């Protein structure tokens, strides 16, 4: 069975990777689907986010990464995914995630959303926090793949930040 794990991944963190690792134990194949998310004004372009996720997930054989610009349920159907994976870190994620799952189910009743929670070491991790820490010159090496750390430094240095 193929599971789709959609998100902005701006950039991918060790929390996302922890979820992918858990998903590979449950499903034969996992497709990490990087959303264009233009409205969120991402720090990295879609192609950059896809490339970083591919590098960070290179060690997982059944995992592929693709960018997409359509609705999540349309992309899931196009790829033959019957399951959507999402992460629940804390109660604060719950309201938005349940609302989105209900909307997705209303549009695509044949696709199930499955929630996974990360190791407690990652419950406080978010891409937004990682960008803030890097912007202020903090060390993000415990939270992201080395290539992601390099990309953050390069981008933020180019911005005149850290
Ligand atoms: P989105 O813009 O779709 O929320 P994100 O890349 O922020 O995209 O998150 C994608 C999914 O991964 C969401 O379900 C989110 O809850 C989950 N996620 C993000 N960070 C973590 C983490 N540290 N641990 C577990 N799940 C996470």
Q: Pairing-aware structural class of the strands and helices?
A: alpha/beta
Largest sheet: 5 strands, parallel
Span from first to last CA? Answer: 43 Å
- Spatial strand arrangement across the major sheet: 3-2-1-4-5
Rg measurement, Å: 15 Å
Low-pLDDT stretches are none
Number of helices: 6
Query: Could you give the count of β-strands?
Result: 5
- Shape, per Cα inertia axes: globular
- Oligomeric form: single chain
Helix content: 40-55%
Task: Indicate the mean pLDDT.
Answer: 95
3D structure, described in words:
The protein is of the alpha/beta class and 162 residues long. It has 6 helices and 5 strands. The chain has a 5-stranded parallel β-sheet with strand order 3-2-1-4-5, with helices on both faces. The longest helix has 17 residues. The mean pLDDT is 95. Adenosine-5'-diphosphate binds next to α1 and β4.
List keywords for this structure.
162 residues; alpha/beta; 5-stranded parallel β-sheet; 6 helices; globular; binds adenosine-5'-diphosphate
């Amino acid at each position: 069975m193929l599971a789709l794990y959609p998100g902005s991944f701006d950039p991918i963190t060790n929390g996302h990777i922890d979820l992918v690792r858990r998903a590979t134990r449950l499903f034969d194949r996992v497709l990490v689907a990087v959303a264009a998310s233009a409205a969120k004004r991402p720090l990295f372009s879609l192609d950059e986010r896809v490339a970083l996720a591919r590098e960070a997930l290179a060690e997982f054989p059944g995992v592929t990464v693709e960018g997409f610009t359509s609705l999540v349920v349309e992309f899931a159907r196009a790829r033959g995914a019957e399951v959507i994976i999402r992460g629940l870190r804390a109660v604060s994620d719950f309201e938005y995630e349940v609302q989105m799952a209900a909307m997705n189910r209303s549009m695509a009743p044949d696709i199930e959303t499955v929630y996974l929670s990360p190791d407690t070491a990652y419950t406080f991790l978010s891409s937004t926090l990682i960008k803030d820490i890097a912007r202020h010159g903090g060390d993000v090496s415990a939270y992201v793949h080395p290539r992601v750390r390099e990309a953050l430094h390069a981008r933020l240095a180019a911005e005149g930040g850290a």
